[in-house]
Amino acid sequence: MATLKLYKFTVCAIYNKNIIYETELSNRNTFILTGGFFNYNFALHRPTIFITMTKLLEWLLGVSLIGVAWGLVTFDLLDLQLPPQYRELAWPMPVYLLVVFGCYSLATVGYRVATFNDCEDAAKELQAQIKEAKEDLKKKGLKIVSAAPVHVG
Amino acid sequence: MASRRGNAKTGEQSDKYSVLLPTYNERENLPLIVWLLVKYFGESGYNYEIIVIDDGSPDGTLQIAEQLQKIYGADKILLRPRAKKLGLGTAYIHGIKHASGNFVIIMDADLSHHVSTLPLKQKEGGYDLVSGTRYRGDGGVYGWDLRRKLISRGANFVTQVLLRPGASDLTGSFRLYKKEVLEKLVEQCVSKGYVFQMEMIVRARQLGYTVGEVPISFVDRVYGESKLGGNEIVSFLKGLLTLFATT
What CA–CA distances, in Å, run from B112 to B32, B119, B139, B241? Predict the structure, then answer.
């Protein structure tokens, strides 16, 4: 007769290396964990399944939470009877936030491109050092065939 | 008390910096970068060694490296060549095995500047990892047209939004690591090419290592052309999305 061995698992949810949620399961209630992998946790002294939040999962979680909140307010799913101003404000929020983010992105990238340092001095210094290096190395006996260098300025 | 062999001194005197130089067809750049490293380390007084990992370059890079070894000494220039081009991650693993320093400096042979700024910054904050950045402080670039700047800043912005890595420049490869930190990270990272460099920093953050930054002047490709075409952008985005979904 076959006997089923009972295994106890600890499931830890980890965010930024801190265990934020821990629960015990047994193989009687099995389910599929996405993004998780099985490990033996020597500190906890029992087999442990770690669920690490990837950035993708974080985003999906954040977007879902915001989506649910927006849906609740806009479509009055919980029958909260909020005043109409709230609904009117919440309804175009997603598009509004996207536009704001788009403008912020353009402004930020534009500003960063405009203030991107040009290292003229560093380039000139480097060219001088290359010349110095070649002469010094030739003196020390290095035999190389060099290609034509790029012009500075 | 039993006698101990080796260096019993503690403190800054026993810090040694191993510079890993993976090379492939860098016959012209290699002597220059070695000369610059010798100059800067000599001036700063830090203890160092340079490990050249040549992947069977057909242009004779290894012969140049051998000449340099004769000039500067086999204790300062170590040659650990490999038979063929095997990739950056394995080059680092290979190099670490032969590194006798407790800090490892990674750089491309494309003539990044002032290597002594890395050890200085590390000491300042006791960081596990110090990365050169083109985007902060007085870091910058030379000879880039508007298109290249736009693509660079745009790609960096997307990376910051998606990955929130805590470092301003992810694709740079001018870095200093504590040796055990580099070992741990190379073990964990699975990407190839410069996405590998990005993954190193992201994973370092995840594992709780401290990351410092120094501004660098990026004067690249003195010899040769740097391509930034459509293909590069597509492969960058693919790599970025992979990191987004897996880290």
Answer: 11, 15, 11, 28
* Residue numbers in A near B156 (CB within 8 A): 112
DSSP 8-state assignment for residue B14: G
Question: In what order do the strands lie in the sheet containing B77-79?
Answer: B77-79, B47-54, B16-23, B103-106, B175-178, B129-133, B211-215
Instruction: Please state the ipTM of this predicted complex.
Output: 0.78
The answer to whether the CB atoms of B28 and A126 lie below 8 A apart is no
Q: What is the dihedral of CA B230, A111, B219, A118, to 10 degrees?
A: 140
Question: What are residue A11's DSSP bridge partners?
Answer: A23, A49
Per-residue pLDDT tens for B173-232? Answer: 788 999 999 988 888 888 777 788 899 999 998 888 999 998 888 876 555 455 567 888
d(C-alpha B190, C-alpha B230), whole Å: 24
Distance from CA of A17 to the nearest CA of B (A): 7
The C-alpha of A100 sits at a distance from chain B's nearest C-alpha, in angstroms, of 15
Cβ-defined contact of B154 to A134 (cutoff 8 Å)? no
Q: Which alpha helices (DSSP H) does chain B contain, by range? A: 29-44, 61-72, 88-98, 117-125, 146-163, 179-188, 193-206, 230-246
Of B68, B142, B246, the CB nearest to A118: B142
Enter the tokens of residue A18.
Answer: 């801190």
Q: A105: burial class by Cβ within 10 Å (0-12, 13-18, 19+)?
A: middle
Q: Which long-range contacts (CB under 8 A, 24 or more apart) does A126-131 make?
A: A126/B111, A126/B113, A126/B219, A126/B222, A127/A152, A127/B222, A129/B32, A129/B36, A129/B39, A130/B32, A130/B111, A130/B222
Q: By the CB < 8 Å criterion, does B206 face chain A?
A: yes
Q: Model's pTM, two decimal places?
A: 0.76
Which residue, B88, B85, B93, B107, is CA-closest to B24?
Answer: B85
Contacts of residue A116 in chain B, CB cutoff 8 Å?
135, 140-141, 144, 149, 152-153
A17 in contact with chain B, both atoms CB, cutoff 8 A = yes
Residues of B in contact with A140 (CB under 8 A): 71
> What digits encode the pLDDT tens for the residues B132-158?
888 988 888 888 889 889 999 999 999
CB atoms within 10 A of CB B85: 13
